[in-house]
Design brief:
Elements (H helix, E strand, L loop, with lengths): L11 H15 L1 H36 L6 E6 L2 E8 L2 H12 L6 E8 L10
Parallel strand pairs: 2-3
Antiparallel strand pairs: 1-2
Helix pairs in contact: 1-2, 2-3
């Protein structure tokens, strides 16, 4: 039975598992190396998701409803904050809260400050 054309539609992990099984059967050393790399990649993804969740929760606890408009992305201990805040104090506070989370090594603060539209009649 062949699976021609199906691998492109399968999730990435299933394809990796199939390659791993084939490598384990034909070349045990290569298979073991692939298994360790797949496990390491999964651990990194899980760690990033955990950090994102922890930072998001810390922001929600500290900033309240204002944190709902912020996005948190993590990769290799680097957290990126994206969104719009009302003032510089909230921008700084969000960064400080993110740094306070365990496993956060660096914070890239890409938060923008909401500016009121300029009314030409007020000039």
């Amino acid at each position: 039975m062949t699976c021609t054309g199906m691998t492109s539609t399968w999730p990435r992990r299933r394809t990796a598992v199939l390659l791993l099984v084939a490598a384990l059967v034909t070349m045990p050393r290569v298979g073991a190396m692939l298994a360790s790399r797949i496990a390491a990649a999964d651990a990194v993804d899980d760690d990033a998701q955990s950090i994102e969740l922890l930072v998001s929760q810390a922001l929600a606890d500290d900033l309240g409803p204002d944190a709902a408009h912020l996005e948190v992305h993590a990769r290799s201990g680097v957290v990126t904050l994206v969104g719009i805040v009302v003032d510089e104090a909230m921008r700084d506070r969000a960064e400080k809260v993110a740094y306070g989370v365990v496993a956060v090594e660096r914070v890239e603060n890409r938060l923008r400050i909401l500016r009121a539209p300029i009314n030409p009649r007020e000039m």
